[in-house]
Amino acid sequence: MSFNQELVQKIIKLKKEKNAVILAHCYQNIEIDEVADYVGDSLYLSQMAAKTDADIIVFAGVYFMAETAKILSPNKKVLLPSLKAGCLMADMINLEQIREFKAKHPNIPVVCYVNSTAEVKSEADVCCTSSNAVNVVKTLNVKDVLFVPDTYLGNFVKSKLNGEVNIIAYPGYCPTHLRITPKDVLEMKAKYPDAKVLAHPECHSEVVKLADFVGSTTAIMNQAKKSNEKTFIIATELGVVERLKRDVPDKEFILVSNKAICPNMKCHHLEDIYNALLYEQHEINVPNELIKSALKPIQKMIAINS
């Protein structure tokens, strides 16, 4: 893989001068790993940012991730390299819609996937990630739960809890994961009969049923690394496959479909990182009152998880 090494060195130098930390989600263009301090899923990255003594956080991810970093680090400057990096699933529910959803189903706790805006988080009782959603819902110890915004993650949680909890899921979804079809999986399984299928729970329920392992981005990568198997069909975004190929060269990783690419996650390039740092541009701000209300469900999740 070839990178602009001169630009990489400029970013590293600028990062030190400005006491900045660069976070990269593992769906990002892999070149960004060359300058990133931390690479991982969105919540891990925000937690790492909160722990650092950096003055500036450059978040190579999508908008809601930068917002979450600001909520957890209100005194730090948070920059999003490209303002085009939105999240279509997060955009499927706004403040008015979650309030309507709650009004339609009163007195039921709301579990909110971190893939959501600060406003939507502020209306939730607790947040969750794809890796801890089952545990978060279980810990609430209630019969009914409202789950926003991803209906497929909600359905996955329901299946894992054997119907013990009635999950009323909002009809949001991740367009990138829904482009992966059961046909894609079956075709790849026919082509690579010995391969294990690792899928993200944002995939369609029929895709999830065909998988040998279902988990978060980080869980998929860990499973692939520790498994004794040698060939894997990866049913999530391209960035995961690229990193696995780089980090585990003695195994084979096959992207389930060429459609599994998130254009929003691919908005950031090294030039954007450099310009964000140089000009301290595209700062993400969250009003103080909203920080207070959105922080509570995030902290509750962290407490459950710890």
Keyword list:
306 residues; alpha/beta; 4-stranded parallel sheet; 14 helices; 44% helix
Summarize the structure.
With about 300 residues, the chain is an alpha/beta fold. Helix content is about 45%, strand content about 15%.
The major β-sheet equals: 4 strands, parallel
The count of DSSP E runs of length 2 or more, i.e. the number of strands, is 12
Low-confidence stretches: none
Strand content: 15-25%
Taken from the alpha-carbon principal axes, the silhouette is: globular
Number of helices: 14
What's the average pLDDT? 96
**Helices and strands, in N-to-C order?**
HEEHEHEHEHEHEHEHHEHEHEHEHH
N-to-C CA distance: 38 Å
Radius of gyration: 19 Å
| Helicity range | 40-55%
Strand order of the largest sheet: 2-1-3-4
- Structural class, please? alpha/beta
Describe the structure.
This protein is of the alpha/beta class. About 45% of the residues lie in helices and about 15% in strands. It contains 14 helices and 12 strands. The protein has helices at about 5-15, 40-50, 65-70, 95-105, 120, 135-140, 150-160, 175-180, 180-190, 205-210, 215-225, 240-245, 270-280, 290-305; strands at about 20-25, 40, 55-60, 75-80, 110-115, 125-130, 145-150, 165-170, 195-200, 215, 230-235, 250-255. The strands form 3 sheets. The protein has a 4-stranded parallel sheet with strand order 2-1-3-4, with helices on both faces. Helix 12 (about 240-245) links the parallel strand 11 (about 230-235) and strand 12 (about 250-255). The longest helix is centred in the last third of the chain and has 18 residues, at about 290-305. The radius of gyration is 19 Å and the shape is globular. The model has no long low-confidence stretch (mean pLDDT about 95).
